[in-house]
Amino acid sequence: MECATCSAGLDHCHGTLVLHAEFSAECTEPGCADLGRARHLLIIDCQSLNGGCTCAETETRLLSA
């Protein structure tokens, strides 16, 4: 079985794009250098990560202060 996007020769990434509260992003795919949303089929907010994210905790503390 092959990825349909790979078969079509379209530029994409198989990783998940993680969006952080401070507006940065990272990808779960090692070596992914283009963090554009259009290249990633899976996009999540960092608060959805198992165990959370330190930037989400920081944002919560700033909002409650």
Write structural notes for this entry.
The protein is an alpha+beta fold and 65 residues long. The protein has one domain. It has two helices and three strands, in the order H-E-E-E-H. It has helices spanning 4-7, 54-64; strands at 13-19, 25-27, 40-45. The chain has a three-stranded mixed sheet, with no helix packed on it. A hairpin with a 5-residue loop joins strand 1 and strand 2 (25-27). The longest helix is centred in the last third of the chain and has 11 residues, at 54-64. The radius of gyration is 15 Å and the shape is elongated.
Described by strand count, sense and barrel closure, the largest sheet is: 3 strands, mixed
In DSSP terms (H or I, runs of 4 or more residues), the helix count works out at 2
* Order of secondary-structure elements: HEEEH
Q: Biggest sheet: strands side by side, in what order?
A: 2-1-3
Tell me, briefly, the overall form: elongated
How helix-rich are the residues, as a percent range?
10-25%
Task: Summarize model confidence as the mean pLDDT.
Answer: 87
Number of strands: 3
The number of domains is 1
Q: Compute the separation of the termini in Å.
A: 52 Å
Q: For the CA atoms, what is the radius of gyration?
A: 15 Å
Beta-strand content: 15-25%
Spans of at least 5 consecutive residues whose pLDDT stays below 50 are: none
Structural class: alpha+beta
